[in-house]
Amino acid sequence: MASLSCLASALESYRGRDRLIRTLGYCCQLVGGILVEQCPAQSDVGMRLLALSTQLSHCRTVLRLFDDLAMFAYTKQYGLGAEEEDVFVRWVSVLGNLADQLYYPCEHVAWAADAKILHVDAARWWALSTALWGLSLLLGIARSLRMLLKLRQKLQNPAAAFPGKLPRSRRKALETQMWSETLTLISNLADLANAVHWLPPGVLWAGCFPSWLVGLLGTVSSVLSMYQAVQTHNSQADATSP
Question: What's the pTM value of the predicted model, to 2 decimals?
Answer without folding.
Answer: 0.91
